[in-house]
Amino acid sequence: MTGGLPVLPRNAKADGKPRAGGGAPIFLRFPALRSACLMVKSPGMSVSDLLPAPATGRFIAAVHHFPLRVYFEDTDLSGLVYHANYLRYMERARSDMLRIAGIDQRANLEGGEGVYAVTDLQLHYRRPARLDDELMVVSRVTKVGAASCSIHQTVMRDEEILTQGDVSVAFLTPQGRPRRQPKPWTDIFSRLMRGEDINL
Amino acid sequence: MTGGLPVLPRNAKADGKPRAGGGAPIFLRFPALRSACLMVKSPGMSVSDLLPAPATGRFIAAVHHFPLRVYFEDTDLSGLVYHANYLRYMERARSDMLRIAGIDQRANLEGGEGVYAVTDLQLHYRRPARLDDELMVVSRVTKVGAASCSIHQTVMRDEEILTQGDVSVAFLTPQGRPRRQPKPWTDIFSRLMRGEDINL
Amino acid sequence: MTGGLPVLPRNAKADGKPRAGGGAPIFLRFPALRSACLMVKSPGMSVSDLLPAPATGRFIAAVHHFPLRVYFEDTDLSGLVYHANYLRYMERARSDMLRIAGIDQRANLEGGEGVYAVTDLQLHYRRPARLDDELMVVSRVTKVGAASCSIHQTVMRDEEILTQGDVSVAFLTPQGRPRRQPKPWTDIFSRLMRGEDINL
Amino acid sequence: MTGGLPVLPRNAKADGKPRAGGGAPIFLRFPALRSACLMVKSPGMSVSDLLPAPATGRFIAAVHHFPLRVYFEDTDLSGLVYHANYLRYMERARSDMLRIAGIDQRANLEGGEGVYAVTDLQLHYRRPARLDDELMVVSRVTKVGAASCSIHQTVMRDEEILTQGDVSVAFLTPQGRPRRQPKPWTDIFSRLMRGEDINL
Questions:
Q1: If interface means Cβ-Cβ distance under 8 Å, which residues of chain B face chain D?
Q2: D68: burial class by Cβ within 10 Å (0-12, 13-18, 19+)?
Q3: Mind listing the pLDDT tens digit for each residue in A108-122?
Q4: Rounded CA separation B107/C14 (Å)
Q5: Cα D86 from Cα D91, distance rounded (Å)
Q6: What is the DSSP letter of B178?
Q7: Neighbours of D (≥3 Cβ pairs closer than 8 A)?
């Protein structure tokens, strides 16, 4: 997201270094973008600073907020969001929550450590969501076990509660057996459950 | 998105007015959030300013950029993004492109005007995407007809092209017949095709 | 599904009449199929009798059984079926149950009568399903109200219970208000709840 | 799929042997089913013979036919099948084609051999599908390479072509590199491409 060269799309790598020469071929492919450089005024700014980023949730105190928008893929012929898709929204929110709390699910999965699986869920649908709606998934940790965790999640549109429920997950080995969660993770969940501000 | 009252979740309505008394019940529901008010320092700022917003694309000159992240729902057992899901990504990007260019698909659908349907597509898959990847869908209008439109779309991860292709859509009546697109829309598409900066 | 002419694909229309001349263009398109006619021996048999049909459930007494197979689209990178997809399976089973009990959801939706929406669900995941698994969704009506209905559903693989839960649905007007279900439907649900054999 | 004991759901294991005692707990769980036994007349028949099976495609000569039905999950708010879902239908058909031609994708994936990935696709949408429609995916092998294969696929409703296109797939190692397909598979694909009847 930083870097002195005007590079597109943004090359915000983990190490913060832009890839050498990354900009050139893009400009050949998208000559119309050349003018975008004119929008870059200050010396430390690059075209990549203009690029939008994916939605990312945020903890406010110990409560996680994850925003999303409803697209065609989410609706069914009733004109409303298909009921199973709220589970996709809630899973995106939980994954984002883990990610910004410092838990890397992909690394754990690829390293053979384990993966979370849903074991129980309870959902109450109160009002429907529609195309283009901006929704917010609000998530709170409510229970932490050695190998499991429960989360209360609410899908809201402004102040309206659309769907709310509880989801329990278990940490499993790649073979599907319950496994004790890593200690640093249990610590994070415990802090969240007590309402501590994870940003501090 | 602004407003003097600390209201959660944000009540950015079309008219910009906060809903009266909207804040109270939220704080009863999420008492842990009360502390969030302490983060609000300046007089014109509210808790709602702290809330994240859904991903929104951006035109850079006439080229639309839409960011997204890969979630569990997008992958299959090969560990990679399931091939059909790139079409969902590309459709999100096209919908966002229309929306920020001022075209309201939902209003047109609900008003019985019509809806866009995909008529042809051609996709070339070059590299796979994986869980947690940040992707960018880059879209350019390449052809505009009376009742149709073609768009070139590229799904990128940093400078890498993962998938690219061309999508043609037709504007249809609710009964499924081709219908001339509204004149202001054709004008927008024509400007984009000529590479004009839609932000100006 | 029968008919004297060898027509492909099968032209089992509601009225049982084959479309005139329907066979010819297919054979031009798929010349290799011509040999299939040789498999048709008996005078009353046509090529269309060779064609497979979509999965259809069956009531055994008052218990509905719906079979399905797991495909790539259903799995995620853990190698297992993504948790939200069990809801898709269960909805297919409920739709099939209504259809073979004589309730036409599409006609009711298109006629502006109303549509069922899920209001509550409770799911317990016990064992995972994997690619290629043959599953059976077993459904029983457990409660019938004026505008609602509850169904107990179990997703099984042979004798193993994989996922089980309860789903409540409400019949809604197109505007989203609860509406009394048509009397013949309530009668069907009541008979099913009492365990009567719907086939008799 | 047969077996002397009335067992539910059917216990058609690869070895054809019913699991010992499998029937009892099911009858405790579903007492209403007991009456189903009365439907079983002939001595060699069991309740499991009454159970429906998942949709399975069929080769007619060298052309594969795969049937399916449209459910709520497949539609979007336009009332029609969402365009990306035709790719799911086509993938189900390809997987079924491989399976009944004797190619076990899951075993190959789990054994670390490799997996097919889509590299190119071209789709033309002509008419829409709607809820409850019975569709047929008709698939023909059109090209066979050392590490790749091309298939022409048509989604039909009776004699109408709804969507048609070409899909190319590559066989990849788990690390994502192209790998030569096993010789027996190339032989199958070559026979299918020449129009040979795979059933013979």
A1: 77-78, 80, 83-85, 87-88, 91, 109, 115, 117-125, 128, 176
A2: buried
A3: 988 989 999 999 999
A4: 36
A5: 9
A6: B
A7: A, B, C
Query: In Å, how far is B37's CA from the nearest CA of chain D?
Result: 40
pLDDT tens digits along A115-146: 999 999 999 999 999 999 999 999 999 999 99
Q: Is the separation of the CB atoms in C152 and C95 below 8 Å?
A: no
- A148-152, B27-31, D76-80: which has the minimum mean pLDDT? B27-31
Average of per-residue pLDDT across C177-192: 94
Q: Please identify which of the residues B49, B76, B166, B187 carries the catalytic annotation.
A: B76
Hey, which CATH number is domain C58-193, 3.40.50.1220, 3.40.1380.20, 3.40.50.150, 3.10.129.10? Answer: 3.10.129.10
Tally the C-alpha atoms within 13 A of residue B195's C-alpha that lie toward its C-beta: 7
List of chain D residues whose C-beta atoms are within 8 Å of the C-beta of residue B163: none
pLDDT confidence of residue A24: 35
Rounded to the nearest angstrom, the minimum Cα separation between D79 and chain A is 4
Range(s) of chain B covered by CATH 3.10.129.10: 58-193
> Which residue in chain B is spatially nearest to A56 when comparing CA positions?
B52
Q: Is the ipTM of this complex over 0.90?
A: no
Q: Which amino acid is at C2?
A: T
Q: What is the pLDDT of residues A28-64, one digit of tens each?
A: 344 344 444 444 445 566 667 789 999 999 999 999 9
| Identity of the residue in D80, D82, D131 whose CB atom sits nearest the CB atom of A73 | D82
